[in-house]
Design a protein that fits this description.
There is one protein chain. The protein is an alpha+beta fold. It is built from seven helices and 17 strands. It has helices spanning about 95-115, 130-150, 180-185, 260-275, 285-295, 305-320, 345-360; strands at about 5, 50-55, 120-125, 130, 155, 160-165, 170-175, 190-195, 200-210, 215-225, 230, 235, 250, 280, 300, 320-325, 335-340. The strands form four sheets. It has an eight-stranded mixed beta sheet, sandwiched between helices. A five-stranded mixed beta sheet has the order 14-13-15-17-16, sandwiched between helices. Strands 1-2 form a two-stranded antiparallel ribbon. Helix 1 (about 95-115) packs antiparallel against helix 2 (about 130-150), helix 4 packs antiparallel against helix 7 and helix 5 packs parallel to helix 6 (about 305-320). The radius of gyration is 20 Å and the shape is globular.
Length: about 375
């Protein structure tokens, strides 16, 4: 699955101060790959720090260790729906991905400049906070998107909907995913930019902040529909762990402590008992990228928004993972639940997560689509 070496030296982000139009390129990322295509990325030194993925190395598997959990057997795998777009439409995939990456990195520059400075914090709710950095990052991202695609529709966490609602493209922007972590200098936050084509994820970029005070750094995850997933330019894949008791899992909890929240607390307890552990990091885009990187096996959460998921779900799928709703149904970024996994464990995890979700639905808990722009055309 690869390892990550993070330099202790901090390299300042180096981006153009003015947004530039991005033209199609044939060498920034590989063309759309077939499932059997082998891609070897050339050595790349990224401007967002020194973090890189080392070549995969096979290690011998140790057997015979016992755990208190009963070893799980993987049943015949259910076939889950593909969630990525069939194409990127009239915009070439290389061009679309380059703009998505440029937008995310431009937002990340704003965050990096603020990461060691005092925060000006306001509140959307009792514990749901927002900083000036969220707003400044979103403004910088919007400038890049509108410079390149002035006729596209945009949904930002802070600014809401802007642009042409008749467009086939919808940009879903989280300018600072994990704001609470950022406010505390806790290293689990990111800038997330995903673009949909007719309602389905077409291209994505997530710039994750790693390290911590005195050693902040970043790594960039990216994907385009049909083209594979990458971290700092190197191809990444989900893990092949096939037993729940040998898995490391991740979940999240929203700000509303309602029945869905309580149900997930119960799921957290259940999976803590039968896995190697369940983590709660507090940034959905980061959690999903960790599944894609192969360092955890699954992530699930109720009540996420499109800007939380649009980038991460595509990166997971393009890394070979599986995405669905928490009842096992077909997923869209406008759904109110998501589970992503390495694919091998998806059906097994749903044996507990699915019935818990169905029970919520039977109580009348709303799982209809939300935050879908009224006039935006989709092929869902």
């Amino acid at each position: 699955m690869g390892r990550c070496i993070i330099s202790s030296a901090v390299t300042p982000l180096k981006f153009s101060q003015t947004p530039k139009s991005i033209l199609p390129s044939s060498n920034h990322h590989p063309k759309l790959l077939s499932p059997h295509h082998t891609f070897t990325a050339p050595p790349i030194t990224r401007q967002l720090g020194f973090c890189s993925t080392l070549p995969f190395k096979a290690f011998p598997i140790r057997r015979g260790l016992s755990t208190t959990a009963v070893l799980s057997e993987i049943p015949n795998q259910k076939q889950f729906f593909k969630i990525g777009a069939d194409s990127t439409g009239p915009v070439p995939p290389d061009q679309l991905l380059r703009v998505v990456e440029a937008a995310a990195k431009t937002g990340a520059e704003i965050v990096m400049e603020a990461v060691n400075k005092p925060r000006n914090i306001t509140y959307k709710g009792l514990t749901d906070l927002v900083t000036d950095t969220d707003k400044m990052s979103e403004a910088a991202i919007l400038e890049v998107v509108r410079k390149n695609f002035g006729d596209h529709y945009i949904l930002g966490e802070e600014g809401g909907l802007i642009g042409d609602s008749s467009s086939d493209y919808l940009w879903c922007i989280d300018p600072l995913d994990g704001t609470t972590n950022f406010a505390h200098c806790y290293p689990s936050f990111a800038v997330s930019v995903g673009v949909l084509f007719r309602g389905k994820p077409a291209a994505a970029a997530v710039v994750e902040f790693v390290g911590g005070p005195m050693c902040w750094n970043t790594r960039t995850f990216s994907a385009v529909a049909g083209g594979g997933a990458f971290c700092n330019g190197e191809k990444i894949y989900v893990s092949q762990t096939d037993k729940v008791e040998r898995s490391l899992l991740v979940t999240g909890f929203g700000y509303e402590h309602d029945e869905a929240w309580a149900t997930n607390i119960d799921l957290f307890k259940e999976f803590t008992d039968i896995s190697r552990g369940v983590r709660r990091l507090g940034a959905a885009a980061v959690d999903m990228c960790h599944v894609a990187l192969g360092i955890v096996e699954s992530y699930w959460e109720y009540r996420l928004k499109p800007w939380d998921m649009a980038a991460g779900v595509l990166i997971v799928e393009e890394a070979g993972g599986t995405v669905s709703c928490m009842d096992g149904g077909k997923f869209s970024v406008f759904d109110r639940s998501v589970i992503v996994s390495n694919g091998v464990l998806h059906t097994k995890l749903l044996e507990k997560i699915g019935p818990a979700t169905e029970k919520l639905k039977s109580k009348g808990i709303d799982f209809s689509l939300w935050y879908k722009p009224e006039n935006y055309y989709t092929e869902l």
